[in-house]
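User: I've been trying to design a sequence by hand for this structure and keep getting stuck. Would you show me what you'd pick, starting by listing the structure so we're on the same page?

Assistant: Good idea, let's start from the same input. This is the structure you sent:
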């Protein structure tokens, strides 16, 4: 005897047939991805408020630390900003900022060019990858201090040695980023471009570079931050000018206000480069993309 099958079909008061909500499939009853994203959409200007709150929190922590610790150990932000203003007015800080910034720019350009070429070659050719992968491991393993001392002993404690040492420390990290980015390129798009008989130059310009651009931009940002830390460390070790030298000089005098004033001055310059130049490049290259929160 055939048992009647349970049905989820319903009939409304007008006689129309339908399916009860409880009987709908879990996938259909579940809110869609677009609906979830719409719920997460933020109000205009909320991003700026979040950044302002972040900076305010950092300053508040600084103020709290300056209240807890002695002024000679951690002066407050107002005292440091006043000292920075005096250094700017007297012109004392500008030569050191200029020297350090020049070294950062040269070392960054050298490191980014070498890492980009090496990373692309390693991602495209397995023989190059097998040849250089052990070099990258060694480069990332050797302490930066050892690399700097070896460069100073071979090249000399001069401008060339400073730039070469900072670049050598940075190149392995940047190369790994670019290398992984190249390996992540969707080769199906390249095959499709070849099927349409596009030239090699067109494939590189229209298929490879758009996929590689986010990796290169991220590597540039990471490399800039790493290079300027290395330059300050090298100046502290063996240079007679620059922000790192001044930080070491005032540290020896136990003048923490001047130490933080020089660090804050160069930090402002790096933030301008990061948020101004790199932010402008990112907006120009990726303005067509929508973030998940804005989609």
């Amino acid at each position: 005897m055939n048992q009647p099958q349970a049905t989820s079909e319903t009939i409304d008061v007008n006689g129309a047939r339908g399916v009860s909500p409880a009987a709908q499939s879990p996938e259909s009853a579940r809110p869609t991805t677009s609906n979830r994203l719409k719920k997460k959409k933020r109000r205009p200007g909320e991003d700026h408020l979040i950044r302002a709150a972040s900076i305010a929190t950092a300053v508040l922590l600084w103020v709290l630390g300056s209240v807890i610790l002695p002024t000679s150990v951690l002066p407050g932000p107002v005292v440091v900003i006043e000292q920075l203003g005096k250094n700017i007015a007297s012109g004392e800080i500008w030569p050191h900022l200029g020297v350090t910034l020049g070294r950062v720019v040269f070392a960054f350009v050298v490191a980014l060019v070498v890492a980009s070429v090496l990373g692309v070659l390693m991602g495209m050719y397995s023989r190059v990858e097998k040849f250089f992968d052990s070099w990258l491991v060694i480069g990332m393993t050797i302490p930066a201090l050892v690399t700097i001392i070896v460069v100073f002993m071979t090249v000399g404690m001069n401008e060339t040695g400073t730039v070469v040492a900072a670049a050598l420390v940075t190149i392995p990290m940047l190369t790994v980023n670019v290398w992984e980015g190249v390996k992540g390129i969707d080769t199906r798009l390249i095959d499709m471009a070849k099927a349409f008989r596009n030239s090699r130059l067109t494939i590189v310009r229209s298929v490879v570079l758009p996929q590689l651009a986010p990796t290169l931009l991220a590597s540039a940002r990471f490399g800039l931050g790493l290079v300027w830390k290395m330059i300050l460390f090298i100046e502290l070790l063996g240079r007679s000018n620059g922000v790192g030298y001044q930080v070491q000089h005032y540290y020896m005098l136990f003048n923490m206000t001047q130490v933080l004033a020089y660090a804050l001055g160069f930090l402002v310059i790096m933030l301008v480069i990061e948020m101004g130049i790199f932010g402008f490049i990112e907006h120009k290259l990726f303005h067509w993309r929508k973030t998940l929160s804005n989609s």
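That's my pick for every position. To get oriented when you compare it with your attempt: Residues 21 and 29 are 8 Å apart (CA to CA). Confidence is low (pLDDT under 50) at residues 1-16, 18-29.
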